[in-house]
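Entry 14. Ran structure prediction on the chain below.
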Amino acid sequence: MMGPAHSLSGAAAWLGVGAAAAAAGHPMPWPVLVCGALICAGAALAPDLDHKSATISRAFGPLSRTLCEVVDSISHAVYKATKMRGDSNRSGGHRTLTHTWVWAVLVGGGMSLLAMQGGRWAVLGILFVHMVLAIEGLLWRAARVSSDVLVWLLGAASAWILAGILDQPGNGASWLFTEPGQQYLWLGLPIVLGALVHDIGDALTVSGCPVLWPIPIGRKRWYPVGPPKAMRFKAGSWVELKVLMPIFMVLGGIGGLGALGYI
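Output, structure tokens:
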């Protein structure tokens, strides 16, 4: 799928988690709901770090473009080192390592530990990166015609405001993990969810997605998981734009209302 659909599905997924948590008797404070939805929207772009032309490659100028090239090379090397006889030969690393559950868990877990151990500046850094990505994804057309600096300033302001709100007692710094020293340990959860939602979205497209790697399926370790080929669509097609994106918006709205206790 394309960047806007990925981000929208990520936000909808976190709002759905918020509704489920409320139904289970553990409602999220509203700052966690809002912040988590934006982080998840941003994290849903991150698996495309292996793609030099993806939205994320433009998000931070030369830094993100260089990072995408490095991740592409690493992903391709991992693919070649672990492929089985049934896996095809590839010339690049797109839709390999960063499109797996292993990547999602490692990145999300790493961000949780960084947020918990690194203090306020680490939290601000994580929020800034994901706020910029959320702006790039959710406000794609506006972000494309705006200067990068303006997007970065908006991301930085959003991160600063959200961190200040979350730090206030009862607003969510210790949501879910309440032991001393576990503040912001939950921050990795929307990152894991965003990456997995991205993978599921790509699995619906023509190429499928090797989300189950390194579990072998048949003679393939990089098996492209997906529905029957007749049910798949091309990225950016009318199915994505006219059907799935409106569905994501409706589901996100329902999830948000449920999370806030209105339904």
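The mean pLDDT is 91. Will compare against last week's run tomorrow.
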